[in-house]
Design brief:
Layout: H1 15-24, H2 27-47, H3 58-82, H4 92-110, H5 117-144, H6 146-150, H7 154-188, H8 192-215, H9 220-227, H10 236-244, H11 247-278, H12 286-312, H13 314-334, H14 339-375, H15 380-409, E1 415-417, H16 420-430, E2 449-451, H17 457-483, H18 491-508
Antiparallel strand pairs: 1-2
């Protein structure tokens, strides 16, 4: 199939490529994903009020089952990428396909009809899987491979990894962490029509930006491999054997498994923690302070992390970072209700998380090169499918676990009312207490009051553990795993040998 050509023609990574292909291009899809990671579960629990559905079982079981489907599609997608042969690369063509799919499926996520609980449940299941198991899987698999496939040059890889992460941080650390809690969430409350309008806008924005990522990226490693006739005919089973008999790949996957467990619960718990433990419901301040002050180190990291990683090694800097990460998390967990201490702890924790945020994909790329050095075969698609299977399955499992814990602890979703008297009547009828005095509530522009309920103590504990407790343990475990992940020790020598083999093949031909 003839596809539109890349607008990047240079042999080495260019500034245009960095800025348009790796910084601006992925912004739309990553913003969409960041919003969904933080607020989709809130939409299900607070707007659609699905927590009680099937006695609390629906929001526990459906994410887990959906992620089993997602895991299967990741395997399929990995094989499709590894067997894609096109002049535009093996991953980039799928970025092009994902652009319209992301927009359509994201809109469907929120246009849940106002019908029976059964109809709502079916719509949620189908739309969720259309987005995560299909559209986002296609984008994320291909997007994640762009750094490893862009170049073998470690310096350029590191630079592209940093640019990629800047985009993620800009989307989640500025827009989702600052603009959403301060401006957007208080404005839309639990009004479904406003949620649909907002998410439709974000979904439409993602379309041209994802196309930009396609046009301003280039797969130099794929071109190099194909130019030397190094096509892999390995079966899926043989590819898995290469991956799972390599100690560095095993350590990398163990690292990512533990990391995603901690960060998933933290991301899901953020809004609930700020609404019910540290502040009040959609107060517009608490979540902003936690996210922004805790995230300030990410801005510093743009300038600090890569020079440190080049001097001391990516593994070493990341390992020390996770020890600091664990200390910051422990500070927050010991004093979960104290805003000042939590902000200090978040700042410390995010200082520790800087190396992981900025250099992880470059470290993963080194592991892929190590496998190629050992076997003379690239296994990018299969390796990335396993990486994504871990991500999506743990997101599903941890979402289900979090919702199960909320349901068992007795979480009560907010209610809406047209007047204080109506709200007071609803509270009295159910034996609930408003989180703040009803007379202090500010109605939305349409006059509707959103009334948050004071949660039971068990709910507060569950939310605190999810957001600030678990990552103390994961930080320690990750530091231990990284101690053994010394793939950088011989990577320059291995990359030189790979290039020498390719030159030998060319000479023979």
């Amino acid at each position: 199939m003839v596809l539109p050509k890349s607008l990047i023609k240079t042999e080495n990574v260019s500034k245009k490529e960095k800025w348009l292909g790796y910084l601006i291009g992925p912004a739309g899809a990553l913003l969409l994903n960041a919003v969904l990671a933080t607020y989709l579960n809130v939409y299900y629990t607070d707007v659609l009020n699905l927590t009680p559905l099937w006695g609390g079982a629906f929001l526990t079981i459906f994410p887990i089952v959906s992620k089993v489907i997602d895991a299967i599609t990741n395997v399929i997608m990995g094989q499709l990428i590894d067997h894609t042969k096109n002049k535009e690369g093996k991953a980039r063509p799928w970025i092009l396909l994902s652009a319209p799919l992301l927009t359509i499926s994201a809109i469907l996520l929120f246009t849940v009809p106002n019908a029976s609980d059964t109809v709502k449940a079916i719509w949620v299941i189908i739309s969720y899987n259309l987005f995560y198991s299909f559209a986002f899987t296609i984008f994320n698999m291909s997007h994640s491979l762009m750094v490893p496939l862009s170049t073998r040059d470690s310096k350029d890889r590191g630079g592209l990894s940093v640019f990629n992460q800047i985009t993620t941080i800009m989307m989640s650390g500025i827009l989702v962490a600052l603009i959403f809690p301060m401006v957007i969430m208080p404005a839309i409350g639990v009004d479904q029509s406003k949620w649909i309008g907002l998410m439709s806008i974000l979904a439409i924005i993602a379309l041209p930006l994802t196309l930009m990522e396609y046009f301003f990226t280039k797969e130099r490693v794929t071109e190099e491999v194909e130019a030397n006739g190094q096509t892999s005919n390995l079966t899926f089973k043989e590819q898995l054997k290469l991956i799972f008999t390599d100690k560095y790949m095993l350590l990398m996957y163990a690292y990512f498994l533990i990391y995603i467990i901690g960060t998933t619960l933290k991301n899901i718990g953020l809004v609930y923690y700020c609404n019910y433990v540290l502040g009040t419901y959609n107060d517009g301040i608490t979540q902003m302070l936690v996210s922004v002050l805790g995230g300030i180190p990410m801005g510093i990291g743009i300038f600090a992390v890569w020079p440190l990683a080049k001097k001391f090694g990516k593994r070493n800097v990341t390992m020390v970072g996770f020890i600091i990460y664990a200390i910051g998390s422990l500070i927050c967990w010991l004093f979960p209700h104290n805003l000042i201490i939590v902000l200090v702890g978040q700042f410390i924790k995010n200082i520790g998380g800087l190396p992981c945020a900025y250099v992880f994909m470059a470290l993963f790329a080194d592991c892929l090169d190590h496998v190629e050095w050992k076997s003379d075969n690239r296994v990018d698609g299969t390796a990335m499918s396993i990486y994504n299977i871990i991500a999506v399955s743990m997101v599903g499992i941890m979402t289900g676990v979090f919702n199960w814990m909320l349901a068992k602890a007795g979480y009560i979703a907010p209610i809406t009312a047209s007047s204080i008297s109506e709200a007071s009547s609803n509270l009295a009828a159910n034996g609930w207490t408003s989180q703040i005095a009803l007379e202090n509530l500010k109605p939305a522009a349409d006059g509707v009051l959103t009334v948050a309920i004071a949660q039971p103590q068990n709910v507060s504990w569950v939310i605190s553990f999810a957001f600030v407790g678990l990552e103390f343990f994961t930080g320690i475990i990750l530091a231990v795993i990284l101690y053994f992940l010394n793939v950088e020790k011989n990577i320059n020598k291995e990359q030189t040998e790979i290039k020498a083999r390719h030159k030998t093949v060319n000479a023979e031909e």
